[in-house]
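User: Teach me something about this protein's shape.
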Amino acid sequence: MVRSAHLLAIVFAVAFSFGAAADRVDVLSLGSDAWLRTGPSTSHEKIMGLPRGTAVVELADMKTVLKQRGGRWVHVHVLEGRAAGKEGWVWGRFVSCCESHAWLD
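Assistant: First, the predicted structure itself:
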């Protein structure tokens, strides 16, 4: 599980890299409904379904984050909805960049 300080550092890095306003942050979001899984393949257990538009943060080193997501599994931390706080894997074609979300509403 990702520690809160580490997650906040990721979120703030994303916010500053995209020039977000002080009360909003640009984060990744799902472009369509997707399954959150325990590992990076369809053979891994489904944790739960995530609806289109769910805000997520990719958990990866900078080298991985800079690679195109379309053809790989993405390790994410869910920021909102029923799955808020959960961590898992989503197929990269379902992950879109970037939506502006109100932070800590």
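Now, about its shape. The longest strand covers residues 95-102. DSSP finds two helices and seven strands in the chain. If you'd like, I can walk through any region in more detail.
User: That's plenty for now, thanks!
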